[in-house]
Write a structure and sequence with these properties.
By secondary structure, the protein is of the alpha+beta class. The protein has four helices and eight strands.
């Protein structure tokens, strides 16, 4: 009994003093996507797709996405970007990623990696669901979700490609000024 009381006392004193790992990594799990239509806050889901999240952070840090257009925007479905050529055929110089499919559904605001017909062909292109698209479940990698600013995604010009495409001004990890 004495050992249990000692353990309880130890954990009740020490644990509150320990840094909260969830809080420490919270900033690393949020990206700011500044669009020509407004600012969007994105929560990265490294619990679902750690390699895809790592790639997005890497490319954002290198400013890869800055000034890239939304080349495919289908009303009632999704807005796609991430191709430096603006054609839907390009990507980064990094190797393609292996699929990280999960049971997480594609709902409005879900962000998934675009790919070719091969499941392991995701690279830099991604799409934001404008509406629920559950027919994509377990066929594309979910790596993030919009948590604020979906109205700015809705405002992106529609078309394949849009006549006057909107674009990513910049994409970056959140900092203390973004709260």
């Amino acid at each position: 009994m004495r050992n249990i009381i000692c353990l309880f006392t130890f954990f009740s004193i020490i644990l509150p003093l320990s840094p909260n790992p969830a809080f420490a990594s919270e900033k690393e799990s949020v990206m700011i996507l500044e669009l020509s239509t407004g600012v969007v806050k994105i929560r990265l889901r490294d619990d679902l797709a750690p390699k895809h999240v790592e790639r997005m952070k890497q490319l954002a840090e290198q400013k890869f996405y800055d000034n890239i257009i939304f080349h495919r925007v289908i009303d009632g479905f999704m807005a796609q970007t991430g191709d430096p050529t603006g054609t839907g055929m390009g990507g980064s110089d990094y190797p393609d990623l292996r699929a990280e499919f999960s049971p997480e559904p594609f709902l409005r605001g879900t962000i998934g990696m675009a790919r070719s017909q091969h499941p392991d062909s995701a690279n830099s292109q991604f799409f934001i669901c404008l509406e629920d698209a559950e027919f994509l479940n377990r066929q594309y990698t979910v790596f993030a979700e919009v948590v604020d600013g979906m109205e700015h995604v809705d405002a992106i010009a529609k078309g394949e490609p849009p006549e006057e495409p909107d674009y990513i001004v910049t994409m970056r990890l959140a900092d203390s000024d973004d709260e």
